[in-house]
Amino acid sequence: MRPFLLLGTRAEDDAADDEYAGFLRYAGLRESELHRVRVEAAPLPEVDLTAYSGIVLGGSPFNASDEHKGEVQRRVERDLAALVRRVVEADVPFLGACYGIGLLGLACGGTVDRRYGEAPAAVEVSLTEEGRTDPLLAGVPDPFHAIVGHKEACAVLPPGAVLLASSAGCPTQMFRIGRHVYATQFHPELDAESLERRLHIYAGHGYCEPEEVAPIVAQARSVDLGPVRGLLPAFVQRFGRPA
Q1: What is the pLDDT of residues 179-200, one digit of tens each?
Q2: How confident is the model at residue 120 (pLDDT cuts 50, 70, 90)?
Q3: Which intervals hold domain Glutamine amidotransferase (predicted)?
């Protein structure tokens, strides 16, 4: 099988490593099967789209709607937007999680703003009619719980995008463009333990305060996050290609 590519943008090593470990764990991949490029660390080199089974873009402390952006954030946005446009044009298997849904939405003509931000929590997500028949969601029940935590969201879908899932607080939880390009607002790689580690890293940065971490994690532990775990293995199984 050709490897998959994970694009990360987290400058904090512990957060970046935990994200990578989560995608490895829940996608069922070995490190040799999931190459990682940290785009915040250096300019993104030219990506050979034929070298990978698919591309995954993880979450980020960056937001497209940030009023003030540093040089690194502006470069990351340019590099990833250029790659995403190539991915969409070629309909290359792609899964963008959280930051990925905003980047994909903007690159393809959607609207991303702060109307539908969600505080960190495990929320109930419902599938649309199209979501119930999408092959990537074949093993996921309706509804299911997943972990979210984001300041912005895709308020208006890009032209031609298919809405696959929504929640009470955020109308766009998952969409598809073409046949192979997907994005989720929720985090398919997160469990309660990783959520706790991530909240301690980012507490006080607009997501939650340190004293709120324990009750947020307790709430995430109180629901069944098992069903959403089927998404990453389905992506790997569907798009894993011979080397």
Answers
A1: 999 999 999 999 999 999 999 9
A2: very high
A3: 33-192
